Amino acid sequence: MTAVKGSKHYTLKVVKDRPFLRFTLFAGVVLLFVLASLVAFQLGHIHGMDGQEKALADAAFYKQKMESAEAEVGQLQQEIANIHLGAEVDRQANEGVRKEVIALKESIAQLQEENSFYRNLMAPSGNRSGLTFGAVEITDTDTPRAYQLKVVMQQLAVNHNLLSGVLQVVIIGKQGELEAKYNFSDLSKDISAAKIRLRFKYFQNIEGKLILPEGFEPERIELIASTTGSKPVTIEKRFGWLVEEI
Predict the structure, then answer these.
(1) Residues 198, 166 contacting (CB under 8 angstroms)
(2) pTM score, whole prediction
(3) Of the residues 31, 35, 91, 153, which has the maximum number of CB atoms within 10 A of its CB?
(4) Which of 70, 97, 122 is a domain's end point?
(5) Residue 3, domain member (yes or no)
(6) CA–CA separation, 74 vs 78, rounded Å?
(7) Is position 12 within any domain?
(8) Which of 123-127, 129-133, 185-189 has the highest mean pLDDT?
(9) For residue 4, is it within any domain?
């Protein structure tokens, strides 16, 4: 047979058809793919479990740290509260002691004043009657230009007899540029007369509420007291206008 120039010659080989072998190869490939997927899943699961366990361990660690920090913060807050409580207790205790000391000092001063007052009552006087002036108190009130005035008259003598007499209380000051004088009775509804009657054995309090006229500025108080009887005695004394705050 004559070959044609320029054409390629192929050698043909007859092979026996084996369909089972093709199925086996295909099944093997599928099985290998499944096995590879299972291995990859297992490895991923194991890696995931390891990561989860580590995450749980880290969470437990940080939770313990947080609980420890919270406990420390709570302890510090309690210590601060205890310090504040102690300071408040000390402050209240100091305040209580301070008030008690003030009260004791006031009681001592009052007792000393009373002791001096009663000691003077029993002391002999230079004048025959023993008539003398005690305390003069001017106390402020809630009403503008209104004051409470108190004058104490005493009898200083060894033998206290009933003493009778009169007392005149004069408030002296300035009305503008001029000097002005007012009797106690002119400024107070509690005093009925310019000459106040005295009748006592040891002491007598004369007191009342007075209201100063507009424009009048008080400067001093003048007291004039006289006894009645066969041998009358007159005494005088001036006090500055010193107001005690309420």
Answers:
(1) yes
(2) 0.50
(3) 153
(4) 122
(5) no
(6) 6
(7) no
(8) 185-189
(9) no
